[in-house]
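Quick start: load a record and inspect it. Here is DNA-(apurinic or apyrimidinic site) lyase:
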Amino acid sequence: MPEGDTVLQTAKRLDTALAGHVLTRSDLRVPRFALADLTGRTVLDVTARGKHLLTRIEDGLTLHSHLRMDGAWRVYGPGERWRGGPDHQIRAVLGTAERTAVGYRLPVLELLRTKDEEQVVGHLGPDLLGPGWDPDTALRNLLAEPGRPLGEALLDQRNLAGIGNVYKCELCFMARVTPWLPVGELALPLATRLVGTAKQLLEANRDRPDRTTTGPTAAYGRGRTHERLFVYGRGRRPCLRCRTPIRKADQAYRPTYWCPRCQSGPTA
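Running the structure step on this input writes:
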């Protein structure tokens, strides 16, 4: 599931493959931009903003994409078979003499002027993996609506950018509160610590192919375990802390996992 760390890794792969190279192939398979031709232009860089990808191209153009739940970019060498999915799922192809980047199942794909990027990412809160990270602003944003469930507030990219459903569940477990607890009931020291832990976890996983929250960076202690995650995806399995079966319910149409014994607060 693409979250801030996954999107950053994708941006790095695309930047390595495309930046500084002239496009020899351009195919945007969305109706609005189907006739756009980027061939002959040089890719300047590929950067991540929260969960958004910005591929900047000479002549002041930016290709904006978003992976959401199951979108993906794959990079292939000359003659290499494309294995990211069937052809009808391809939304974008950007090729150079040495590499071809193929975007699959991209729910958002648009071409805009680079000077207009803020129109698509300007609403984002501080980026947990970005150079402009501001924990104080992120904390204020998170606590701005006291009655809002914590899980929903963590997922709102306008508060802080980069947290997805996996980190939402894991962070609530580490804080020992349920995702349905109103943010106004969080003690300020705990809320501050939670924002810091979010930063710590995404930083620790920014270069890892397999995300983990139970390793040495876990801020709230653990026993020895081979499990990569504390609660996410572990419905009905024993909690790593107390052995109580993990529960699962929907929050904002997303599967949410928590321990009914370790985490206090309202439930679904």
